[in-house]
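Hi C.,

You asked whether I'd gotten around to modeling the 193-residue construct. I have! Everything is below, sequence then structure, no commentary in between.
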Amino acid sequence: MSAPSSLPVVGTPAQRAERAVWRAMTLADIPLLAEVAKTAHAHPWRARHFEDSLATGHWCRVLTLPPDPPTDPPQWVHAPRTAQGHWLLSSLVAMRGVDDVHLLDITVTPAHQRQGWGRWMLQALIGWAREQGAACVWLEVRASNTSARALYTAMGWQAVGVRRGYYPDGAHRREDAIVMRLDLLPPPPTEAH
């Protein structure tokens, strides 16, 4: 997807949305992404997961925002910044299959959560998946992650299964994953007899 460098972002103040930068992830981003993942997830991706995703050719994107002290909320002062000094808002990694796309990781930096960035990233993913000719988008989400599940459901994903013990949950426990699917193409017409 050849997205422009600045895109409107749904659900955020207009002055920030106009400045958001949607770009390909680079190796230089990975140390920061791995650090942010530690603060955003109980069992985060490590640097090698991002490195492997880039090396494999997965769709790896980041959303950043150039700083603007007059409009940036004061609580952002300790939020993570990229090497270019931009606020790191979120990251996304997806894998293209034969006729589908699988969301592997999505992370919104904790300082920027509940501001519409996750929804924006998912809309971008859906647009890219359609451009790839995918019939559907798959994901797994922790059974306990009710806020993410609510967002996915609100955006049209449907729970279609459970992977028992899929996620680590402490030293000796595992947590189920809810498998969700978003259909992108209408089903083929049925023949009338």
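If it helps when you're writing up: The first strand starts at residue 21 and ends at 24.

Thanks,
B.
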